[in-house]
Amino acid sequence: MSLEVDTELLALRPRPEPDPAVLAAIAAAVQLAWPRPVPAEVQPPTHEAWRFSGRWWHKPVALRRDRPWARP
C-alpha cells in the first residue's frame, strides 16, 4: 500500500513583495518607535559607588524592630 503525496502541498510558497508605500510606512513607524540614545551631556550623572542611604538595613536594629501594629 503506497500513499501518493502531492509535493506542491508540502512546499513553501514565496511571500509576495510588499507594496513600496506599505514598506515605507512600516519603516517610518519603526523609526518612530525605536529608542534613540541620549547624548552624554543630557544624561543625568550616574554614581559609580552604590549607596546605602535610605535602605531598610541602614537603620539601627532598634528602629528595625519597631512594630507599629504592636503599639497600644
What does this structure look like?
This protein has helices at about 5-10, 20-35, 60-65. The chain contains three helices and no strands. Helices cover about 30% and strands about 0% of the residues. The longest helix is centred in the middle third of the chain and has 14 residues, at about 20-35. The protein has about 70 residues and is mainly α. The relative contact order is 0.05.
Summarize this, please?
The termini are far apart. The protein is an all-alpha fold and 72 residues long. It is built from three helices and no strands.
How are the secondary structure elements laid out?
Layout: H1 7-10, H2 20-33, H3 61-64
Mean pLDDT: 78
| Individual helix count | 3
- pLDDT under 50 segments (min length 5)? none
Category by helix and strand content: mainly alpha
Output the radius of gyration.
Answer: 32 Å
Give the key terms:
72 residues; mainly alpha; 3 helices; 31% helix
